[in-house]
Amino acid sequence: MQYDLTEEQKMFRESIRELAKEKIEPRAAEIDEKGEFPWDMVELLRENDILGLPFAEEYGGQGADLLTLCIAVEELARVCTNTSLILGCQELGSTPIKIAGSDEQKKKYLPDLARGEKLAAFGLTEPEAGSDAATMKTKAVKKGDKYILNGSKCFITNGGIAETYSIFAMTDPEKGVRGISAFIVEKGFPGFDFGKHENKMGIRGSVTRELLFDDCEVPASNLLGEEGRGFKIAMMTLDRTRSSIGAQGLGIASGALDYAINYMKERVQFGRPISNLQGLQFMVADLAMQVEAARQLVYHAASMVEAKAPGYSALSAMAKCYATDVAMRVTTDCVQLMGGYGYMKEYPLERMMRDAKITQIYEGTNQIQRVVISRDIFGK
Fold first, then answer.
1. Closest CA to 255 of 204, 203, 326, 202
2. Which of 30, 146, 197, 338 has a CA between 20 and 30 Å from the CA of residue 288?
3. Which member of 91, 210, 350, 363 is catalytic?
4. Catalytic site residue 363?
5. How far apart are CA 42 and CA 24, in angstroms?
6. pTM, to two decimals
């Protein structure tokens, strides 16, 4: 099926799909089973300049637009959500620097991230401040030429393995979200440590840890933008990166459906392949419609976000919400289509189903996405 992609994007998609099929898919089950971060996949993405996609050429990146990045995330997620998350988190953790960083900050931090020599992470969520950022407890107090951070973050992807962190902390608690500021925090800064390593249902090859700040010293020069702009920087970041989470959900759904279809063509019951059974054909038709609708929405949203077109924030939320809801429905139904085999770890469907669930939760739950969409609709 043809999409409104350039010839270069179509060729890029095929090259990523081939790489994923040959080098990444054979590792996917083992990554999940062992629950270990796949450094070999980082190296693979680095060698193929994939980690540099979301960075400008002046910083050593590929200068890809958001749609091209989404295509890469989709193709990686078709075979391995964990590997797709390496690229997605590199974009998420670095975007606050790209949005609000000074020229000096960009020159200092972005080249290493673009080359994949260092990994990035994004620290917003806290035990008592998930969807409600105004209840953030992590504080930053300026003392001389430093900010002193105290508090913690939880559920942080790449926690402990990333070297560069975009961290959000209260500099003026009385102002609520208008009192949040953003900082670049380096692994190794005095007072910065890591806590609980989460044992997760899905994305088991991705490291999720607590970040701990105990009188953590951050140079004042590492403030992103101005004090009080942190919440806006975080929201601008998520407006951009939610499309790539939609692409991740799309990739999981597309990969699961393709696998189930191939299985159905080979599985014989009642003397014929189950792909000949009309009831199952209708199930697959419904799933295929949902996947195609998700693809069109994700691609459209990515293009509108890139162009900063009117309403792009709501479109990004729609893409994330719809595509990840589709991922959950499609993987659940594909497990059903494969019957008992779908439930077994020997086959990838149960892993895809477990991985799909987190896409409905991180980077803003799908309930929060509906809040964003509703506010746009009603003009609030």
1. 326
2. 30
3. 363
4. yes
5. 11
6. 0.96
